[in-house]
Design goal:
Number of helices: 12
Strand order of the largest sheet: 3-2-1-4-5-7
Largest sheet: 6 strands, parallel
Radius of gyration: 19 Å
Shape: globular
Bound molecules: serine
CATH topology of the largest domain: Rossmann fold
Distance between the termini: 39 Å
CATH superfamily of the largest domain: NAD(P)-binding Rossmann-like Domain
Structural class: alpha/beta
Number of strands: 14
Order of helices and strands: EHEHEHEHHEEHEEEHEEHEEHEHHH
Number of domains: 2
């Protein structure tokens, strides 16, 4: 293991990314060395049986300090957040959880002189004025969602803590993440996960964005390997810190449906855009992630076809279909 990251804490460990990330980190660094935090959602048996779990709200700084001290935490993966869809329904909650939660983590990292913090950002940091194709690393960041506002502010806050206090905090702008283990909650890109579940369970899906909606996406194994690779990259090689563009694939909802139909010929999709269409329309089609390639060797392994085959195999197993 990377010698300076011995005791890891994962916030948001019951969430879509956190649940798989925690297991991957336990595999890599040892179960007892990865403390999983969740607020109220019930953790899976797998999460409970493979290492320590603590119920903890990330807006409660004292509680976080107690956990960091009692386990001797030196590294935090901060995955807890309210996503874009729920954030538009509950903007105050999104602000509180995403901003106060991150600041608590950064304050603790500074005060306890932690080795490293990983704090993901998102394509939601971009907005309608951002160039939509091959979106550059340095570009216009004027999001129109509360989630996006907290992500831009979060990137800036992370960089501030690095430059002012030397907190080694790193992050990527994740695209929509697709996975079969834990369903996402409250995001705009959730249709790209739900479509697979419904293909396997129902044979039909009603999609909440238009058929021609193109967004950048990534399969979970790449998302996890990517953030761990970034965590382990030598600091000297990094020019950027908390705002790496990160891409794997881009496709329209219609192309996604077509890739599933190649495996499930009778599958049908209808399109009924809701308020999340406006959010999707404000995000890029595709991302230039050359800085991540150059500075820490980012390389995705899954494209749409490979992901679809793997998703369907795993979901069929999961639901006994
Ligand atoms: N998947 C997220 C969302 O839709 C984007 O970061 O909110």
């Amino acid at each position: 293991m990377a010698g300076d990251m011995k005791k890891i804490m994962v916030t948001g460990s019951v969430g879509q990314i956190g649940s798989e990330l925690t297991l991957a980190l336990r595999e890599r660094y040892g179960g007892d060395n990865v403390v999983a935090l969740g607020r109220k959602t019930t953790p899976s048996e797998e999460l409970l049986n493979t290492g320590p779990f603590e119920y903890q709200d990330i807006t409660d700084k004292e509680g976080l300090v107690r956990i960091v001290e009692s386990y001797g935490i030196d590294t935090i993966y901060h995955m807890a957040a309210i996503l874009s869809g729920v954030g538009e329904q509950k903007p105050d909650l999104a602000y509180q959880v995403n901003m106060d939660g991150l600041k608590n983590i950064l304050d603790i990292a500074r005060d306890k002189e932690l080795t490293r913090v990983l704090a993901p950002s998102s394509i939601a940091a971009f907005g309608p004025e951002t160039p939509r194709n091959n979106t550059p690393q340095e570009t216009v960041l004027r999001p129109r969602t509360m989630y996006g506002v907290t992500k831009v502010a979060g990137e800036l806050l992370c960089d501030y803590y690095f430059h002012k206090w030397g907190v080694d905090v790193r992050g990527v702008r994740y695209p929509g993440i697709i996975s079969w283990k834990t369903p996402p909650g409250g995001g705009t890109t959730d249709y790209a996960v739900a479509i697979y579940y419904d293909a396997v369970q129902k044979g039909s899906y009603e999609c909440f964005v238009r058929e021609d909606t193109v967004l950048p996406m990534m399969y979970m194994p790449d998302a996890i390997n990517g953030i761990i690779d970034l965590a382990e990259a030598p600091l000297e090689g990094l020019v950027h810190h908390s705002d790496f563009n990160m891409a794997a694939m881009s496709f329209s909802a219609g192309e996604l449906a077509a890739s599933i139909k190649r495996h499930v010929p009778e599958f049908t999709v209808t399109y009924k855009p809701d308020y999340r269409q406006t959010i999707a329309d404000s995000w890029p089609n595709s991302i230039d992630d050359s800085a991540a390639h150059e500075e820490w060797g980012w390389q995705p392994r899954y494209d749409l076809e490979k992901m679809t085959a793997d998703m369907l195999t795993n979901l069929r197993k999961k639901f006994g279909k």
